[in-house]
Fold Prephenate dehydratase.
Amino acid sequence: MPEIAYLGPPGTFTEQATRRLTADFEADLVPYEGVPVALAAVRSGEVLAAGVPVENSVEGSVPATLDALTVDDPLVAVAETMVPVQFDVLARPGLELSQVNTVASHPHALAQVRGWLGENLPKAEQHAVASTAAAAAAVANGEFDAAISAAVAREHYPSLVRLEHGIADVADAVTRFLLVRKPGALPEPTGADRTSICAVISDEVGTLADMLAELSLRGINLSRIESRPVKDRFGHYRFFLDFDGHVADTRIGEALAALKRRCSTVRFLGSYPKADRKPGYVRSAASEQAFDKSARWLEAVREGRLA
Amino acid sequence: MPEIAYLGPPGTFTEQATRRLTADFEADLVPYEGVPVALAAVRSGEVLAAGVPVENSVEGSVPATLDALTVDDPLVAVAETMVPVQFDVLARPGLELSQVNTVASHPHALAQVRGWLGENLPKAEQHAVASTAAAAAAVANGEFDAAISAAVAREHYPSLVRLEHGIADVADAVTRFLLVRKPGALPEPTGADRTSICAVISDEVGTLADMLAELSLRGINLSRIESRPVKDRFGHYRFFLDFDGHVADTRIGEALAALKRRCSTVRFLGSYPKADRKPGYVRSAASEQAFDKSARWLEAVREGRLA
């Protein structure tokens, strides 16, 4: 059975996400103590793949994930999932909500349920710990009365009692995760795919605008952009881009080739089915048929078959 | 003496940054337990300003800072500083490095000195706690032998002994902080300024490319871009942009007015001196003189003073 790494300790949102990402096959999930270590295990072949947070995570440093994806040997994403930022309140057995005097969680998680805590546990002392999973562990050890945790934490600490399910101040906040592995056969296009790349450009005025024009001219919808300075090259910026479409699509392929000509480095980070399975809108002039038709017309022109 | 908020507990990198940001005036620094609470204190007038992390921080959630800046009443940045991501090793008195068996820090901080720990404290047990400051507090309480902390932490725990200064696996990693306050008179242009905005656009192909073209056409150098989905409006994206120049500059003013026409929302987040004080490169066709000259020429044309 293949082993799949995830950001530990056991019971985190990343474990929950990695279970979804590997739902279609049998796998042993193995916790690692940081994203860089988890990715190193994929690169060395110690594990087959890793589930990692890439957007707005409650735990784990997303910049660290992005950095780790772009150093050393290439890795590519083969699947994505979104996990709602909703928490369970897990307590010591026998306690009711009104008896909870101390509550623990990751500081970002406490911040995300600030309103709920103010309304439901206004007098409870709040304790910040290293992860939502560590909070559940500390409650199981008797250190605190209750933990704000991912739902999956309860499976690791079955003695805990769930006092509330799915709490969140903002109902639709999500965090996004990718399953990454060594390059190989790409996932088949599904018609609702996303492509991720990292591009390095130098600090010349207009270069980014030109880069994005290469996408927009081809009707490609950008779903995310993030810049990060390149550590060892002053004045160079690295851009993480996600856009609708699969590298097998003609418009995506043409755009990537154009970026390859324009940028000092382009790293392909994967084409994979979108978590929401919603086909992106492609305007008719950018469809596969339109590209096919224009290619056949050009061929005819070049061969002198048209006046 | 004015009170200035920062992301606590005392002894964090944000405290270190906020000291720098307030070096020019007398101020009482007051720790707050989260960036949203610190910004709420600025909005309510409880404090004059707040020091907050906005890029790649070791502590505090940068997405949470960006979100908190764009809800509720406007706030603007008036100063920026960069703090190197370098740590001190603070230990219980009497201990030498070779006697350190347990070491504590924020999980992101432990990740950032992974190489150093492997080389210098290969056998020490690592403990993840809620902040680098909490690690120093725990060492002062006798829970662990040593903490990986910001240099400033030692001032709050003077009993601790500094075993190492300025450790870091990557020498030039920095984290960026802003001092934000209620809108009022802007900082004077210095010739080396940065402007920050948040713009909301709908999910139409090409809109971002058009937006960036408004900047690049006017010779404006983008130093950072980050997209965040707008929570309550599906298909809308919020972009955080930082670029060289001051809103008092003609080219920046024109570009901002153009974005205001193009975007559903533009929030001005401040024009302030760049931390590195390096003037950005402005090509001659985008200089104040060139704008002045073209404006005078246009006036003359409109008044019929030129053929």
